[in-house]
Write the structure tokens for this entry.
Amino acid sequence: MTIPADATLSDVGEFGLVAALGERFHQGGAVLLGPGDDAAVVAVPDGRVVVSTDLHVDGRHFRRDWGSAADVGHRVAAANLSDINAMGGRATALTVGLAAPADLPAAWALELADGIAAECSLVGASVVGGDLTGADQIVIAVTALGEIVGEPVRRSGARPGDVVAIAGRQGWAAGGLAVLARGFRSPRTLVEAYRRPEPPYAAGPEAASAGATSMIDVSDGLLGDVGHLADASSVAIDLRTDCFEIAEPLRAVGAALGMDPLRFILTGGDDHALVATYPSATGLPSGWTRIGEVAERGESVERTAVTVDGRAWEGPTGHLHF
Amino acid sequence: MTIPADATLSDVGEFGLVAALGERFHQGGAVLLGPGDDAAVVAVPDGRVVVSTDLHVDGRHFRRDWGSAADVGHRVAAANLSDINAMGGRATALTVGLAAPADLPAAWALELADGIAAECSLVGASVVGGDLTGADQIVIAVTALGEIVGEPVRRSGARPGDVVAIAGRQGWAAGGLAVLARGFRSPRTLVEAYRRPEPPYAAGPEAASAGATSMIDVSDGLLGDVGHLADASSVAIDLRTDCFEIAEPLRAVGAALGMDPLRFILTGGDDHALVATYPSATGLPSGWTRIGEVAERGESVERTAVTVDGRAWEGPTGHLHF
């Protein structure tokens, strides 16, 4: 079906758009019944489905002038696929709800779909269903389904003595965000890292089979999310800054903006790196880097159980949603 | 945890609200890992999960002055649970995303959660996860997961000669909506039907085991949704108005508003009745009423394949989303 380049959602209508979207979503082997009915049916052979949902709001989680619709599609899909990854699972299916003003260009919605489909193809997941409706503001609701082998890796299993490790880039998207927020478009590598994060999709299942005791994906900020893990596990965690290699573009942006580049790494979110803990005797799988260790939780710890080089971190630790 | 009666979402904060919500959601037997981690894990013993997602936008799908937050919770949960029902499945888990302005009373969000939990309890489903974020307008994203026995009942299986049947109330919610839209609050039974639909949750699995050839839930309007079923099955469907018993409150509202009460039945949505087709030799399960029959699709049929008493229906057939 051909949709004119200047058509809006209201011109094309719900059913026209659904038809055009359907053509864009390849259905993989796990899909027993794809889009077009009251519900989809997805295979999860071992009888357990992993599920996670996220909302993405225009002007808060993304800005249309900071990247293409395809970039937004990559971003929103990556955020949910990463949640499945952080359980040690593999995503197989997504549902996507789009609430948007009637005057949104239909081409934007279709390009969004292309971005979502392309990100899904990285892990072999399919978009199996969704919903379209009018709203004053664009809100994209993504739910990811997946499968796991063995037990899910929770946030609550870290034990004193464990090693804390990270997989994936960390701080790059925050560096890109800082650049974009000031009206710049370079360094290109950081801007691209913000627009299209590259979550370490293989690292989650690898951590699970290597015996990780706990895991979380970094979506709200490294210190904040490591704090969630420490709280869930009732432990203290110390991160060592000498473990972090500060990439050249982060140094450059830090110097240009007068900011400590370590701040991007410690408080940035959107890269969807994974943090996991491993028993100290366990060798880390490839792609994982040691960044700290787990200790007993002392009685004096108050607001956060996470320290940096043995001291409390001064300043914000992540993103607040309200 | 106690939240002050006049607190807003911004006062309570994301994590405070998440903690308060967690206490409200009972976790049923299918939940292997509930809220609080990167993703939840739900059992679907036969290895297939049914999934459906919907968005509900303030001012479009619900109005806060037309009912309580608990009513809205019942409505949004019912809409998704009904989608699983319409496949012949049984819902086991929901995820709920809430995007809302920071000044929304926290009590409204908590009462919304109570309504969702109460509706879920009717089918034994659990709220296993979700997301909270700020937005200019309230948008509620619900995804339902479920299980099926045997094959899912699709929209595409209706065959000429089949009987068309309905389960559940139809037109009541539309009658209630017509009343509310004019600023009235009675007849109470219709207003309540709009605020808290009563989908026939047992009817979906019963239809599946009785051999229904196709099924859909009526969410956008009876004629519109029967049209989707006819299109998916490449058949024509004739509905017989003498099969519909027009309930007394619908007659009363029709008379008061100068409207044909049949219009509520033929074009109303929000009751989440089920429409299914059965081979003519199959006895209908209890709770199902014959309302028409399936015929070959003629070549002359254009916009819709659905007729009423053998003639095209003049007027709107359902709800347009843009």
Summary: The mean pLDDT of chain A is 94.
